[in-house]
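Recall the central idea of this unit: under ordinary conditions, the amino acid sequence of a chain determines the structure it adopts. In this exercise we apply that idea directly, starting from the sequence alone.
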Amino acid sequence: MDLTIKGERNQHERMAEDAELVGAAQRNPLEFEALYRKWLTPVYRYFYFRLGNVKDAEDLTAQVFLKAYQDLPRYRNRGAFSAWLFTIAHARLVDYYRKNSRKAALEVPIEELEIPVSAMDLPERAAQKGEFEQVFSLLMGLTEKEQTLIRLRFMAELSYREIGQVLHCKEDTARKSVARLLERMKKQMENDHD
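Accordingly, the structure predicted from this sequence is:
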């Protein structure tokens, strides 16, 4: 299972592109659409894979972009735009649970999480779905903080530096935490196959 994030390799390019898009949107609010289009899917996935509910994920995603649009004139490029955006998203998620005063358990039905269809035959697809369900089950056993690390890294595709900015920790701490989680999950999967 390859867990390399394409954004990690092009982090500087992405940050430069974001800085350009932010500058354009600050000069002309109509240009915000480019930032919205770029970050819509990662923000939505961040919420969906936590809430497992399309309506709530859409509502929170809309709230994030509304807040970002409103606060963009005051945004100062002191790091990654993505970290700023996901700090807003993380705060919205905390507010969501505080307001709804309920502990959240990820309740995404496995059937709703699509496995990409390719030319593979049925036995290969069944094996892939079984592995996917096993990984999903392992994710549910993680603490909220651990799940947040995984969501930011793999659903939002943030770099370790960006994750550190969102979670107020060092880049190296984020990297080591994710590596330990992945190693632990890998060992659990191997033990389950034995």
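The longest helix spans residues 171-193.
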